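Progress against Task 2.4 (sequence-to-structure conversion) is shown through the following example record, which the project officer requested during the mid-term review.
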Amino acid sequence: MCSRSRSALAAMAISLAVALAGVADDWMYRPERTEKSFEFGRLRINSSIDARENQHHPEFVVEVKNGRKIIGLFPNVHFESLHPSPDHEYFLGLSNSGIPGTAFVLFDARGHLIWETKHNHEQFSYCRMSVSLTREWVAVEGQKVEFLIADAGYLQDVTVVHCSGSRISLSAAVQGAPTSEVNSLSKINHVH
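Structure tokens generated for the chain above:
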């Protein structure tokens, strides 16, 4: 290979690296612990981000408390919006963020994790997506979550407004996902 070809190849490699660096996401959290709290009677749900030790990969935790007692603790889970069922028996957290990767988390008032699904670009239909941070799949503004409760009292499905404006079923949204990531609501007989 002649020196001109090597120089041209090196220049192309540098240009490609610079271009890819330009589309990559960059983030850094402030070195602090932040917390959002939601209260429903005696139930308190806290979603925290602790970046005091690691600003690039902070600790994410969702904590469910009944009075002072912790009844649910979900590490590496985060949501941007929380939606309770009308009777405050079920809670759905939604996220359009790739960090830490939670697409949605569903839990009950007793602190039981029913279903958590991480973002997977092969599984969801995204309206916008970046390398790491943006995973827009649900509407943020005007989100109207519907909890479909069977006559027997257990949760059959949950529907949300997709970022395109259409209503989608969570069960249908994750069809085709690896079975390790999916707990179909139709298989869950909720224990009261």
